[in-house]
């Protein structure tokens, strides 16, 4: 019994000794593998490897920064283009008359007892545009390049004036947006169109300068025949031929 107890004690002791020996060996091995126990050549290789890795990371960082800068530039350029296009669309909308407009200008009122002809209105509208009017309306009908000012007769045979197909009623109120003083002067100078109306046709328009005039939008124009020309495509073989001739001449 005592012998068995002695064997167990010895066995446990030997196991503990073996465990501590293995633990010490592994600790020694880890220590030898640490930087403290590396030789100069290994340390030099490690430094070189780390420097290479740092260089690769720096290159990757620069590439990412450049990519980010390019994307930001594209976004900025896209925003600028979009803003420019939006402004151009607004300007075209104002010019073509598809939106209502307002601004300073003059009003010209012609009463019903005036001997007014449609040709007088055509001359008056043309004179306004030549003088610098940016928008013109007759009885709140927007005048565009395609607006017809014509004469006709009603059911009783009385002469009538048509503005864009609409019968013109009295009084006739013409609105023009632009620099008010310039517009008035362009109509009232001696020997000008207002003088001619007074002297030859007994038409006496009343001109009034206004700080703010509103002119409504016209209907969206419909064009049946005009279209944007297609871009001319150059044949690839022709392009190559021209490039070859250029190289030969050089």
Give your account of this protein's structure.
By secondary structure, the chain is of the alpha+beta class. Among the domains are: 35 residues; 115 residues, Alpha-Beta Plaits. The chain has a five-stranded antiparallel β-sheet, with helices on one face. It has a three-stranded antiparallel β-sheet with strand order 4-5-6, covered by helices on one side. It is elongated. The protein starts with a helix and ends with a helix.
Instruction: Report the total helices.
Output: 6
Order of helices and strands: HHEHEEEEEEHHEH
The CATH C-level class name of the domain at 101-215: Alpha Beta
| Residues in helices, as a percent range | 40-55%
Side-by-side strand order of the widest sheet: 3-2-7-1-8
Overall residue-averaged pLDDT value:
79
Query: What general outline do the C-alpha atoms trace?
Result: elongated
CATH superfamily of the domain at 101-215: Protein of unknown function DUF881
Query: CA-to-CA gap between the ends?
Result: 113 Å
Percent strand: 15-25%
- Main pleated sheet: 5 strands, antiparallel
* CATH architecture label of the domain at 101-215: 2-Layer Sandwich
- Uncertain ranges: 1-8
Number of strands: 8
The chain-level structural class is alpha+beta
Q: What is the radius of gyration computed over CA atoms, rounded to a whole number of angstroms?
A: 46 Å
Might you state the CATH topology name of the domain at 101-215? Alpha-Beta Plaits
């Amino acid at each position: 019994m005592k012998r068995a107890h002695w064997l167990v004690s010895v066995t446990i002791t030997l196991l503990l000794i073996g465990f501590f020996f293995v633990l010490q060996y592994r600790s020694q091995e880890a220590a030898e593998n640490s930087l403290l126990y590396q030789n100069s050549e290994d340390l030099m290789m490690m430094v070189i490897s780390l420097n290479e890795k740092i260089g690769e990371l720096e290159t990757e960082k620069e590439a990412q920064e450049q990519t980010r800068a390019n994307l930001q530039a594209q976004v900025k350029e896209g925003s600028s283009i979009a803003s420019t296009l939006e402004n151009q669309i607004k300007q075209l909308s104002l010019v073509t008359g598809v939106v209502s407009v307002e601004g300073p200008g003059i009003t010209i009122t012609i009463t019903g007892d005036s001997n007014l002809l449609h040709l007088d209105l055509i001359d008056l509208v043309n004179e306004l545009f030549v003088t610098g009017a940016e928008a013109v309306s007759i009885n709140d009908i927007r005048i565009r390049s395609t607006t017809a000012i014509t004469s006709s007769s009603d059911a009783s045979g009385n002469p009538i004036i048509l503005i864009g197909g609409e019968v013109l009623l009295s009084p006739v109120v013409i609105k023009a947006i632009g620099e008010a003083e310039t517009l008035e002067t362009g109509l009232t100078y001696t020997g000008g169109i207002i003088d001619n109306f007074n002297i030859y046709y007994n038409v006496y328009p009343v001109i009034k300068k206004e700080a703010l005039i509103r002119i409504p939008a016209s209907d969206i124009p419909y064009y049946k025949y005009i279209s944007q020309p297609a871009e001319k495509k150059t044949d690839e073989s022709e392009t190559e031929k021209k490039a070859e001739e250029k190289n030969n001449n050089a």
